[in-house]
Design a protein that fits this description.
The chain is about 90% helix and about 0% strand. It is an all-alpha fold.
Length: about 190
């Protein structure tokens, strides 16, 4: 055989070997690239799972907070309803006390001979002042107007004092009743 044929055979074998080496190395590179890509995908998937777990945990916490807030709101509504009922009962009790006080005042006015039909109080000083007014008018004295003004002032002061006593009595009755209700155990 010719030496050039042997050279061609050796060249062909070397080329085939190089092609095989290149194919094997490209396969290894592709395998390494695939493994690297798979590892990156695993890490990315694990990160996404952690985020999903955190989001799920946060969602559950938010739901728990929402349920707690809803329970607080319902509790507040129940408390408001209870307070509303208590206020209504106290208001009706106060109205009853006011009605009783007015009845007692009316009875007292009916029994008192110094009170006229309109509920205005007449006392001896006013009657005396009225006599003085008549005398002063007969005499044409200018002091009559002053006496009348004093009588009006006295009547107004007496009315204010009577009103203040009535208000104090009503408050005292209401305070006593409220204290009694507060100290009475509920069933």
């Amino acid at each position: 055989m010719d030496p050039s044929a042997w050279i061609w055979i050796v060249v062909v074998i070397v080329v085939i070997a190089l092609v095989l080496v290149l194919l094997m190395s490209s396969r290894r590179r592709r395998e390494a690239f695939r493994q690297k890509r798979d590892e990156q995908n695993r890490q990315h998937a694990a990160e996404i799972r952690r985020k999903a777990e955190n989001a799920d945990l946060e969602a559950r916490e938010n739901e728990a907070r929402a349920m707690h807030a809803k329970a607080d709101a319902e509790k507040a509504q129940v408390e408001a309803a209870r307070l509303r009922q208590e206020a209504e009962s106290r208001q009706s009790a106060a109205q009853e006390f006011r009605t009783d006080a007015e009845k007692h005042q009316y009875k007292a006015d009916a029994l008192d001979p110094d009170v006229d039909a309109d509920g205005n109080r007449r006392d001896d000083t006013q009657m005396d002042a009225g006599r003085n007014d008549v005398r002063a008018a007969d005499a044409g004295d200018a002091d009559a107007r002053t006496a009348e003004a004093r009588n009006d002032d006295a009547r107004n002061a007496e009315t204010r004092d009577a009103d203040a006593r009535d208000v104090d009595a009503r408050r005292s009755d209401a305070d006593t009743t409220d204290a009694t209700r507060r100290n009475t155990p509920r069933e």
